[in-house]
Amino acid sequence: MKPISLHPLKICRLTLLLAAFALISCTSPATLPAAEPSTPSPQSPFPSLPPTLSSSPTANLPEQQYEEGKALLQKGEVDKAIEIFDRILSEQPDYALAYLQRAIAKDLKGDYESALADFNKAVELKPQDATILNTRGMFFAGHQKLEEALTDFSLAIEINQQYASAYSNRASVYAMQGNFEKALVDFNKAIELDSSKADIYFNRGTVYWQLMQLEQAVQDFRKYIEMSPEDPSGYFRLAGVYLDLEDYDSALHNINKAIELAPQMAEFYFIRGQIYASKRLTDNAIADFRKVIELSTDEDLTSQAEELLKELGATP
Q1: By three-state DSSP, how is residue 144 classified?
Q2: Which band of pLDDT confidence, cut at 50, 70 and 90, is reported for residue 61?
Q3: Which helix (H) or strand (E) holds 305?
């Protein structure tokens, strides 16, 4: 899953606008993950369930309530989850994880200020918890507060220099800011620490593409497809790189696979139209650009398709 769409990016030789980067384990406000109480293993970009703190039933009660609230949150029962976290915090006001989960829940409801207050309280209570800082950074990134996000990811890395997720998240924010060289350094480090996360290859491939290091981009998108063969976005990106390399047959093979997996994506027909036009298959290109107009809800993409149809001597 590509957790959050960040800024638009022009790709290929024509000006198709695409969503550029996605933070690995950095989701939109509607899908922030749960968090754990201690610094995570670098093998786990998403925080895991906290350990049981005691075998005493009384001592375990807040933990049991916490797990119940988190389960409700993951099922989308946000108001019920907030009620449970409120109850926990009324009885145990220094429970940092309850503040963190309530922050996530409040963000789901669109209450930015209240969510931020809870994130800040969680950090205040556990300032050396890399996971909490990483999660707040994800929240900031989801709200386009990029400098604040960078600060939190950097602090998380200072605390745990083996934290692959924080490197990957920081890399994505650097990329959003157009600082592709720094992004590449952090993506390389993230992969060095944990090579099992497909999204890191996807994001690094996008950075390589931006830097016009096309062969490296091909390798990363191929790796992503190997790890996530049912995600059409990998084939889509790889087709775009092959188009830039003027390897039209490989581009066409990959975009056809993307369309097979997601036949309602207007962007996929747009890039296939470009490929057909490059191969001088004019009728095919015209059909695809018309398909873009039929499917697209994006005015810019529709306008580009209309212009290309005119260049091909056809009407929309």
Answers
A1: coil
A2: confident
A3: helix 299-311
pTM for this model (two decimals): 0.80
Write out the two tokens for 150. Answer: 């960078």
Q: Using CA atoms, how far apart are residues 239 and 204, in angstroms rounded to an integer? A: 16
Centre a 10 Å sphere on the Cβ of residue 76 and count the other Cβ atoms it contains.
Answer: 10
Q: Given pLDDT bands bounded at 50, 70 and 90, which one contains residue 30?
A: very low
Output the six-digit token pair for 135.
Answer: 């999660």
- Cα separation of 19 and 301, whole Å? 12
* Alpha carbons 122 and 274: distance in angstroms, whole number: 50
| Interatomic CA distance for residues 307 and 314, integer angstroms | 10
CATH class of 21-196: mainly alpha
Distance from C-alpha of 153 to C-alpha of 166, rounded to nearest angstrom: 5
**Boundaries of every domain in the chain:** 21-196
State the DSSP code for 279: T
